Amino acid sequence: MPVKIPVARPIVGEEEIAAVASVMRSGMLAQGSVVTEFESSFADYCSVSHAVGVNSGTAALHAALLAAGIGPGDSVIVPAFTFFATASSVSMCGATPLFADVDAATFNIDPDSVEGLIRPDTRAVIGVHLFGQPFDVAAIRALCDDRDLVLIEDAAQAHGAEYRGKRVGGLADLACFSFYPTKNMTTGEGGMVTTDDDALAERVRLLINHGQSKKYLHSAVGYNYRMTNIAAAIGLVQLDRVEGFNERRIHNARYLDRHLADTGLATPYAAPDVRHVYHQYVATLPAGYPLGRDAFMSALDDRGIGTAVHYPIPVNRQPVYENEHASCPVSDGLAASVVSLPVHPSVTDEELAYICDVVRSLRAE
């Protein structure tokens, strides 16, 4: 049988299936007590007072921004090198995203770039813990505190990551998670907003349920962003497993670091004061590498190794934002050179060795 190692793979088993079946048999499929239990457990996991379940990571970002009062006439600083939803959620509020460049080593939002973008209408900064590595929270927090800006963590890719010994999700005014199937843990589709602020949590809860302060009484125009009991049932099982998943991701990443060191690839940098949980293992092909990225990826695909590009187009260069005129040269360079290799928990040591052998052989060809 030919080798086939996908670049990402959801991990669900009989326990998740049984949890979903239990909800199905109960007949209580929509938002209910299982969601409440998952929210409480996730809040404990992040060491925060509140967690609000929603139906996607994008919904989490949108609801968090609205709860923070972001709207037309405001600007919000976001990194240029991230998934599109970080910026589109700002636009969904009627506000304007301002694109900061990223640090060349960590790929995370650059505090110096952020500082240069702040203007009188700026109300918030969204920092992304990209690929599982926390951004420089202390530096961005200092900028926000000095200028009375809201700080939001986009933790969609960083469940269980840590910054200076503290888990993400409780490092800012609000944090937003995604539970898409290939994330470090999943609910199928889903998301979560976490915060220690009682008023913000209450506002998020209002906004995700049609603006209902109680049944059929609407005190705001809200959305149907509710999480279902079905999704929460999966989430409760996955939450018990996520630390095991993360430890395997870290093991796999360290193996790749060691065995790709002599291949010419630039392996991911992990800052010394963080726990990187490797949602993706994103290497770069430096100038002078013997293969172009497309040829490199094609060669790996021919040998059964899945790859991906996260992300081929910086958000500021997407057609919808092409008139923003942001200059983000580091993001441009990364978009042209990054490639993701398999690091998910189901990759075995034997498969890791095979990946490294194939990459090494390409350098020799």
From TrEMBL:
CDD domains, A to Z: AHBA_syn
GO biological process terms, semicolon-separated: polysaccharide biosynthetic process
Highest rank taxon of the organism: Archaea
Position of the signal peptide: none
GO MF terms, alphabetically ordered: pyridoxal phosphate binding; transaminase activity
Pfam families xrefs: DegT_DnrJ_EryC1
Annotated SUPFAM superfamilies: PLP-dependent transferases (SSF53383)
Keywords: Aminotransferase, Pyridoxal phosphate, Transferase
InterPro entries linked: DegT/StrS_aminotransferase, PyrdxlP-dep_Trfase, PyrdxlP-dep_Trfase_major, PyrdxlP-dep_Trfase_small
Family classification: Belongs to the DegT/DnrJ/EryC1 family.
Protein name: DegT/DnrJ/EryC1/StrS aminotransferase
